[in-house]
Amino acid sequence: MIKITCVVENEALPGTSFKAKHGIAWLIDTGSARVLFDTGPDPDLLAHNAALLALDWATIDAVVLSHAHLDHTGGLPAVIAHTRSSIPLYAHPDIFRERYSRRARCGMGIGQKVLDDHFHLRLDDQPVEMVNEVWTTGEIVERKFFEGRSKWHEVQIDGEWIPDPYRDDFSVVVKTGEGLVVLCGCCHAGLLNTLSQISRTFDGKIITVAGGTHLGSADAAMLAKAVDALRDDYNQPRLYPSHCTGQKAFNVLADAFGEKVQPCPAGTVLTF
Ligand SMILES: [Fe+2]
Ligand SMILES: [Fe+2]
Predict the structure, then answer these.
(1) Taking the domains of the chain in order of start, what are their residue ranges?
(2) Could you tell me the distance, in angstroms and rounded to a whole number, from the CA of residue 157 to the centre of ligand 1?
(3) How far apart are CA 72 and CA 212, in angstroms?
(4) Which residues contact 98 (CB under 8 A, 6 or more apart)?
(5) Residues within 5 Å of ion ligand 1 by Cβ?
(6) pLDDT (mean) for 5-28
(7) The whole model's pTM is what?
(8) pLDDT for residue 36 is more than 90
(9) Which ligand is nearest to the Cα of residue 185, counting in written order?
(10) 245 C-alpha to center of ligand 2: Å?
(11) Which of 4, 48, 111, 214 has its CA 20 to 30 A from that of 163?
(12) What is the pLDDT of residue 217?
């Protein structure tokens, strides 16, 4: 059995002591290996929720970062404090670029040297199998559909402010006996661009998509396009749109697909 646990999210499972804050972290347990995907915004919060899950940090085999933003990487000090040294950390090579939101830094709060001292850094823009059946998507190279953009996200190149190209944004694919499970961080590269790349790269049907889809900035036409694609091109996968999805987009998806759309607060466990 493959078990995927939402460790950190904007909301917590009602009636539990999980803490919630804008951000996301997932624990993927294949039965033979464990991968931590993103770390949420805060080390204490990550450690608190991990303790509630009785997580034995020594059993983490790999860590992967969806992109640089602090709501996904802010918990890294707790990961460094608790995990075995020299385990691999997977990310896109562009993750250490300085990034800004409203001209304030919003990228990695921790330097490459510090990460290098603890982890075996595995920076790659290609899909990588991190542990058996758990892959990164690699860089989302085709952006023919709308992206999960914020107009405030910028980078500086040669002194010029330009929109963040989000080259570092990727997702994770878990191959299960039932089909492909897609876990997203923020999906800045765009949900449909990400799903399209996964379909081209991996065999099998996408059965579940969970995590941040960044549809909050999508207008009505974009949301309609997403619904059409999920219905016609992807055969209505089960959806757990969370984090940066936005309530309006969640409602549109829930109206279209009913019970197949569910929230995924911290403490949620998905099994396959
Ligand atoms: Fe982000
Ligand atoms: Fe985010």
Answers:
(1) 3-271
(2) 19
(3) 11
(4) 105, 107, 155, 156
(5) 69, 186
(6) 98
(7) 0.98
(8) yes
(9) 2
(10) 9
(11) 111
(12) 87
